[in-house]
Fold this sequence. Notes:
The protein is an all-alpha fold. It has one domain (about 1-115). Helix content is about 75%, strand content about 0%. The chain has 5 helices and no strands. It has helices at about 1-25, 35-45, 55-70, 75-95, 100-115.
Amino acid sequence: xxxxxxxAFVAAAVLLGSQSAQAQEVCPGNMAxxxxxxxxxxxxxxxxxxxxxxxxxxxxxxxxxxxxxxxxRNKSSVAISILESFIHEVxxxxxxxxxxxxxxxxxxxxxxxxxALGG
Length: 119
């Protein structure tokens, strides 16, 4: 019985450890509610293979650049609209050129940025 419990404990620890490692692979640093942090997230995803097509990554980064320029001009509603377009593209590419788990993460991250902008 003790061996069985120990084996279950070890299996749980390995599973939790791999989930923690996966979470760290999703986004570098912290998941700040900023467009810049989301840009870092996309770049990081491309560098580690969660996005397997540079054209898709460039398209996403172009949207984020446009959203950042809109925010810099105090056009939060425009920035939010562009971020919503970013989310639609991520969802369209999930499971194709963007790893499903990472796509979910980027959608959540973009939602946090939208909320921070007042959306």
